[in-house]
Amino acid sequence: MKIRLATNNPHKLAEVSQILAPFGVEVERLDAEKVEIQHDDVEAVARRAAELLCSRYGDYVAVEDTGLYIEALGGFPGPYAEYVYRTIGLGGVLKLLKGVANRRALFKCAVAICIGGRVEVFTGEARGYIANEPRGRGGFGYDPIFIPDGMSQTFAELGEEVKNKISHRARAFSALGAWLTKKNLF
Ligand code: ITT
Ligand code: NA
Q1: Would you say 98 and 41 are in contact if contact means Cβ atoms under 8 Å apart?
Q2: Is the full-model pTM beyond 0.90?
């Protein structure tokens, strides 16, 4: 089985391919404009984007949206993680947290997929905290400053194999993979 993921982020595509491989699901990039509505919740953002893509590109088209919610900053940057990464960057985020003891943070990933003209949404979270300085060369985006619970290394230090077992994206896409597998049995 194959799904088409509408994304401009090659790191995402690589991670999703690795996560879905054990389910026998192949992933191809769909070169389509991903329309992003403004909403605090990544689930709503992904669902709306999928609804717009379904009518145009049909079944097995998926979109995913990920947000980073930092507790001490009232959930900032949330679904605006991409904009914040491009503007103030990791250094800017670390500056906002300078001297702040509560470094709790949460990644939330939502994947929405078109099946039979309907949209199904699966979500996954990874809880952890923000490091004091960037560490590691793996991954992308905020990976050098995010330490998942139960670990002492950042996602960037842990590397793709570990990240793809425990990440927000691993949880969301494993739920999708399990659902697709079950659906195909009947
Ligand atoms: P598409 O919308 O084209 O899929 P994007 O990179 O814009 O790609 P998102 O809006 O979902 O994707 O992600 C927002 C930002 O959050 C993204 O630019 C990264 O900087 C960051 N991000 C997303 N997933 C991440 C992950 O697993 N680890 C670290 N940072 C991540
Ligand atoms: Na985006």
Answers
A1: no
A2: yes
